[in-house]
């Protein structure tokens, strides 16, 4: 898009403005702020700008207040300092003049959006002279407003945000400064199995955290008490460790952990050696020695990819591990990239957003890229580019 002459052209931009909204109030505007430079650029270039996005997963063919983009239109008006009307029925045609910007109501309310319907994709394409795909966060979905519109638009281009995301991810994974260290945490190995299997063939160190680490701790032969664990995946965890070892990579496991008798903000926190966890204990964080050891690895890394908090950081008593790692990333000279909803909440909580080299707006798309999967919208753009 950056190279295109957009003066006087009708430009339809797909953004991912799927921001959390609580009772009409936007609780994180990261995705709006990330899209802003693209929208400003299109206006500066003299385009008549239409912006489309989904919000949530509403039922197609029905309007719902909860998934309306009205709060986003309001916020965009403030940030761009121009009026940003929200257009409700827009598939058949949109009135917009050069220098104006309109937000189109949630595209997932249109029948056919989710199944990448060709007729709907063609209708989207017919609205514009140029279609710009800028929604990295939705690039893993083959839907009418992503993959479909790219196929049928007169001209289709990648937007600056999408390009920046792909560049940052390529820098981290395709030609990383080494050592390349990844932090993968979350409640279950099963939901991140593809990610772990893919990263283990690329990284020099793989730090696992949260419930995922418990399964690895169990694979080392230690008791994890009442902690969240997936017994069926203990052999898989052993295999991942063996694969890492075979290529000289390291999966460090905790030597100490923070335990509590129950999952609660006010539960008493006790630090224990990893081989001293009792039957009644729940592991809710890594211990201070482990956190310090991991921080040292981060300090010496060339690249850090971070997805997932290593403890229950929402409860302050169990946030020390995540905070230590967050601060180590902030202080490290490594190229660092963070993505995923919980990770960004941790970045926010510890105030390190400015110190992370790149914060991805993608959740599922970020994970799928890390897993080495093709993102359908990116593939479609490449096909259009020949
Ligand atoms: C996200 O929040 O990850 C993206 O906006 C995609 O949303 P989806 O999972 O509902 O497609």
UniProtKB/TrEMBL annotation:
Alphabetical GO biological process terms: gluconeogenesis; glycolytic process
Subcellular location, principal: cytoplasm
Lipoprotein found in the keyword field: no
Pathway assignment: Carbohydrate degradation; glycolysis; pyruvate from D-glyceraldehyde 3-phosphate: step 2/5
Pfam family, one: PGK
GO cellular component: cytosol
Binding, ATP: 192, 314, 340-343
Positions contributing to substrate binding: 16-18, 31, 54-57, 108, 141
Record has Glycoprotein as a keyword: no
Keyword list, A-Z: ATP-binding, Cytoplasm, Glycolysis, Kinase, Nucleotide-binding, Transferase
GO molecular function list: ADP binding; ATP binding; phosphoglycerate kinase activity
Cellular localization per UniProt: Cytoplasm
Uppermost EC category: transferase
E.C. code: 2.7.2.3
Catalyzed reaction equations: (2R)-3-phosphoglycerate + ATP = (2R)-3-phospho-glyceroyl phosphate + ADP
Ranges annotated as spanning the membrane: none
PANTHER family per the UniProt record, alphabetical: PHOSPHOGLYCERATE KINASE, PHOSPHOGLYCERATE KINASE 1, CHLOROPLASTIC-RELATED
Record-stated family: Belongs to the phosphoglycerate kinase family.
Name of the protein in its database record: Phosphoglycerate kinase
